[in-house]
């Protein structure tokens, strides 16, 4: 790449996005925390930066998306992704408690989403399913790290 040329933000169509339950998560019976992985599928490097927007989603029904309140954790620095390179972020939900349908400590009803829509500044929005279950949360709020080159647990 010529000197002085900047690496552009990753385009939405140049990213493969997946999610799985985090190993380090709050106690309870819901999802607790999930890791979202972004892989650059383009032939050129690109950058990701920032904290995500998150919405609970029904499969194939964008008009039914429910925006969740995200509290950002940590600072956001650009992450350069080479072709095939990966970056991650961690979502930590208010945990569902108990057995069966569970309950929320706040008294609100738990909500289960088959997918979430994860957005990053300049990189579009991506509908993603949890690879080992569904997203369960309480109170419509979560904390989220900024995208990072270091895989969280």
Description:
By secondary structure, the protein is mostly beta strands. The chain is built from no helices and 12 strands. The chain has strands spanning about 15-20, 35-40, 45-50, 55-60, 60-65, 70-75, 80, 85-95, 110-115, 115-120, 125-130, 135-145. The strands form 3 sheets. Strands 1, 2, 6, 8, 9 and 12 form a 6-stranded mixed beta sheet that branches. The mean pLDDT is about 90.
- The coarse silhouette is elongated
Secondary structure class reads mainly beta
Name the average pLDDT: 90
| Topology, number of strands | 12
* Residue runs with pLDDT of under 50 for 5 or more positions: none
Terminal Cα separation, in Å? 33 Å
Provide the gyration radius in Å: 16 Å
Measured as a percent range, the helix fraction is under 10%
Largest sheet: 6 strands, mixed
What is the helix tally? Answer: 0
Proportion of residues in extended strands:
over 45%
- What pattern of helices and strands is seen along the backbone? EEEEEEEEEEEE
Key words describing this protein structure:
four-stranded antiparallel beta sheet; 153 residues; mainly beta
Sum this structure up briefly.
The protein is an all-beta fold. It has strands at residues 15-21, 33-40, 46-48, 53-58, 61-67, 69-73, 79-81, 86-94, 111-113, 115-119, 125-129, 135-145.
Itemize the secondary structure elements and their pairings.
Blueprint: E1 15-21, E2 33-40, E3 46-48, E4 53-58, E5 61-67, E6 69-73, E7 79-81, E8 86-94, E9 111-113, E10 115-119, E11 125-129, E12 135-145
Parallel strand pairs: 6-12
Antiparallel strand pairs: 1-2, 2-8, 3-7, 4-5, 4-10, 8-12, 9-12, 10-11
